């Protein structure tokens, strides 16, 4: 998943991005309620189309949209072998709609605003720790990917030598951890130089604006259709 792309997309300008953060979060839960409450294929298709239209309004790249949708399609397709034909398709469409719903949230709300929703119930220092842990986790994955790629290019990975592979992978993990610790120390030094004293997380968008009504009404209607159909 291209984290930097969604960070960029979440900070672009559209009427969906201008909604209050709590509205984005509420709408996401309403869509999830509609997705998991609906059991008919027709209603799930309608819900998926509604969410997809909203997602396309965020100007998300079709390349990332297709790639991120392939994962649930591949894994959910195994249900076609276990359940009946219609029930299997219900599981697949439900998985696709769930992916679209999550992408809609992360395409319109920066992660700082999402985590900042915890401010009323969680201390500011803990919120900062959650955010840094989230960032460092993906940085560690990316660094391990680079180390593993370098290991394969240099012939350190051979599918026929399991013991050797485990030894080299262990070294790669150790190197990634050392690099991550070094990155954390440099990040802390940068934050200290810039005067960090806890509380660098962005605040949520407050207020109630006219463009919030579109999302709330659409989500409520979608949930109503899921109940009625």
From TrEMBL:
Cellular component aspect of the GO annotation: plasma membrane
Membrane-crossing segments per the record: 30-57, 64-83, 89-118, 125-144, 208-228
Keywords tagged on the record: Cell membrane, Membrane, Transmembrane, Transmembrane helix
Main location group: membrane
UniProt-annotated location(s): Membrane
Membrane topology listed for this record: Multi-pass membrane protein
InterPro entries hit by this protein: ABC/ECF_trnsptr_transmembrane, ECF_transporter_component
Protein name: Cobalt ECF transporter T component CbiQ
Organism: Natranaerobius trueperi
């Amino acid at each position: 998943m291209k984290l930097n792309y969604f960070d960029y997309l979440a900070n672009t300008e559209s009427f969906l991005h201008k909604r209050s953060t709590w509205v984005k979060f509420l709408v996401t839960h309403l869509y999830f309620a509609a997705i998991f409450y609906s059991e008919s294929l027709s209603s799930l298709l309608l819900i998926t189309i509604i969410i997809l239209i909203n997602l396309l309004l965020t100007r998300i790249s079709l390349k990332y949209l297709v790639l991120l949708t392939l994962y649930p399609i591949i894994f959910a397709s195994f249900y076609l072998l276990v359940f009946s034909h219609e029930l299997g398709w219900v599981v697949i469409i439900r998985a696709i709609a769930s992916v679209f719903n999550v992408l809609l949230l992360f395409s319109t709300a920066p992660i700082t605003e999402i985590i900042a929703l915890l401010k009323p119930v969680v201390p500011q220092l803990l919120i900062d720790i959650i955010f840094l842990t989230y960032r460092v986790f993906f940085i560690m994955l990316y660094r391990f990917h680079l180390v593993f790629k370098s290991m394969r290019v240099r012939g350190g990975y051979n599918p026929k030598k399991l013991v050797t592979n485990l030894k080299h992978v262990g070294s790669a993990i150790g190197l990634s951890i050392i690099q991550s610790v070094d990155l954390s120390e440099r990040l802390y030094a940068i934050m200290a130089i810039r005067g960090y004293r806890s509380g660098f997380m962005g605040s949520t968008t407050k207020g109630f604006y006219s463009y919030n009504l579109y999302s709330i009404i659409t989500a409520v209607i979608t949930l109503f259709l899921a109940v009625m159909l």
